[in-house]
Amino acid sequence: MIYQTSMAQKQILIETRNNSLVLSSDTDGSLISRYFGKKIAYATEYGVIPTLDKYTPGSDDLYNKREAYVASGSINLLEPALSVTHADGNKSTVLIFQSFKETVIDDNRKLTAIVLKDPKYNFEVTLNYLAYFDEDVIEQWAEILHQENGDIVLNKYASANLTLSGKKFYLKNQYSSAMREMRSEEQQLLHGLRTLDSKLGTRTNLLHSSSFMISIDCPSAEDTGDIIAGSLEWTGNFKLDFETFDDYYLRIAAGINNFSSNYTLKSGENFVTPRFVYTYSSYGTGLASRNLQNWARKYQLREGTSDRSTLLNNWETTYFDFNDEKLKNLIQDTKNLGVDVFLLDDGWFGNKYPRNGPDAGLGDWQFNKQKLKNGISAIGKEATTSGVKFGIWLEPEMVNPKSELYEKHPDWIIRQPKRKEYYMRNQLVLDLTNRDVQDYIFNVVDETFVQVADLAFIKWDCNSLIYNANSPTLKNQDHFYIEYVRGLNSILERIRKKYPKVPMMLCAGGGSRVDYAALKYFTEFWPSDNTNPFDRIFIQWEYSYYFPSIAVDNHVTDMGIQPIKFKTDIAMMGKLGYDVKVHELSKSDLLFSQNAVKTYNDFKDIVWHGQQYRLQDPYQNDVASISYVSEAKDRAVVFNYFMATRNATKQALPITLKGLQGDKRYRITEINLYPGTKSPIDSSKIYSGDFLMNIGFNPEVSNRRTSVVIMVTAI
Ligand code: DGJ
What we know:
Elements: E1 2-4, E2 10-15, E3 19-25, E4 31-38, H1 49-52, E5 82-85, E6 96-104, E7 109-117, E8 123-132, E9 137-146, E10 152-165, E11 169-175, E12 183-188, E13 192-197, E14 208-216, E15 226-232, E16 238-245, E17 249-256, E18 263-265, E19 270-272, E20 276-281, H2 284-300, E21 311-313, H3 315-318, H4 324-337, E22 341-344, H5 375-385, E23 389-394, E24 398-399, H6 404-408, E25 428-429, H7 435-451, E26 455-460, H8 480-498, E27 504-506, E28 524-525, H9 533-543, E29 553-556, H10 564-571, E30 575-578, H11 587-609, E31 611-616, E32 623-629, E33 635-642, E34 665-671, E35 686-688, H12 689-694, E36 707-714
Parallel strand pairs: 21-22, 21-30, 22-23, 23-26, 26-27, 27-28, 29-30
Antiparallel strand pairs: 1-2, 2-3, 3-4, 5-10, 6-7, 7-8, 8-9, 9-19, 9-20, 10-17, 10-18, 11-12, 11-14, 13-16, 14-15, 15-20, 16-17, 24-25, 31-32, 32-33, 33-36, 34-35, 34-36
Bound molecules: (2R,3S,4R,5S)-2-(hydroxymethyl)piperidine-3,4,5-triol (DGJ).
Residues 315, 345-346, 393, 461, 463, 507, 509-510, 526, 529 line the site of (2R,3S,4R,5S)-2-(hydroxymethyl)piperidine-3,4,5-triol (DGJ).
């Protein structure tokens, strides 16, 4: 929609159900970000905003405007979104509003494309805003194009620049390391620049997540306050800059990391940045998460609105030590447990250099003849004839120095020939910028499908980051990091074209690669190798700020001292899987697990497709509580965990539920009980939704009942 303001400036309004982003050109032609926040009743009033801005820099003040996409080298001296070296060597860019176009994609999506041009150079940027009305989500990206006399160099090229108004800003972000993914911190952004980035090439979330939240004026809260949640859709090096200026503004630039990546752009070539997805919530982090989760399921996550399989994985029970016999037993275990898939993990390949540990065999994707006498296809067949689906682990981007691939194709490996080789987990990364390597990787996956009829699941691992970044074949090493991701995407694109439906788990030595660009190809991700159920509550809690539970693979394992019920209840808050020695479970643990799989099958739809509400956080409460409510609000499943380490013996107060329908009447039943235990919860009592959402319900969690799952059913 376009409005004329009193100052005859063009106003562009990008709206979703509850929010508005208002942009308009200034008297000098620059495009200004006027407002981003809760929608107001009369859109025409947005036109008044420019008249209220009394910012007038004195002659000693820095010129500073809320430009929608800040270019460097002329009047902007704060952190830019864009830096360019033009064909004549000039390093200044000025962007002037030219035109905009709205395209209605369907009744929920509208694309607004705004063209900005440099008045002195044949150079333009198109800012794209794809608004998802119902989800209150915007995806933003830039396209950079020029017709200058010769190549230009993009020195920085963010996807989006957002300017937020407020008095204070708090950044909530998650930092990680292997086994300790998604620890969270929140701090006020003081003056200056704060950057979260990755230069790791692959496994790019090993240190930091590429998702974040900003809370305006006060620290974030679950149900109150203004929150912006964003995530960069890029499976590579990222850079998120936060710069506060004056007393009232925060500017965010989100995009590919320009570290070692000056990008040469030919005349007529279009550089398209990755998308940055964000949402605005006026009701705290809870709504912001639900917005992103709803958007992801419907539009981004592979098969986000359909089903998932439960599985038994052998990694933690066998590691590399297995053979036909053991696998046969595991297939029977899968059947016995009642889950859908048997997932064979690392260690099934390599002959000259058998994959009996992490130091050899990676790259040689021929089944190991010692372990699998009749081949991988026979194992697949064994599973299908036993009524179990079969899945397999691959790590196709990597190579061990002890491998035939390394011997045969040193030219396919990322390294600096003049320098010492450095390894992460004894391995190196293949050069995905090279077309031959892309073909090789595609063929590895394709061949696996050929060998294993009815292959029903793939776990795609990535255990190394990139040391000694250098492609043996790429002409311009400044393009290396970008071309790597493009290479990866092109392989995944080909795989998905041929195998659109097969579930694929995204894994990177735990959760070091979790981003929405990859989740376009993957149905789910492995959050962490840390499956200690106590730690898992925190890890899953933090992922839930950005990602829907249907995408999160949680396995019941031997880690942790908690009883199997506690472990299972936690794993159920996502996609349930197992990595246990089923035949070694006690009779009652096995019975409990078999029943649990059935119970899960009954309510998994709510966890996968319902709305998630974080009720009580695990940091400040003796009991952590999380619920999922069905779309029709007729069923909710509420998970409650005893977190106290001191002897605080029980949850004293009722926990207020969320997302129910006030005038509906609900019955509460405890489910997933351990055999032989009785619930103190009286399921004959009926409560109104209003009661449960205002007064609440006490699930009676204590140091004797450390984990309680309740089902809330409308009658
Ligand atoms: C790292 C993954 O996170 C694990 O789950 C497992 O697949 C190993 N790699 C196998 O090497």
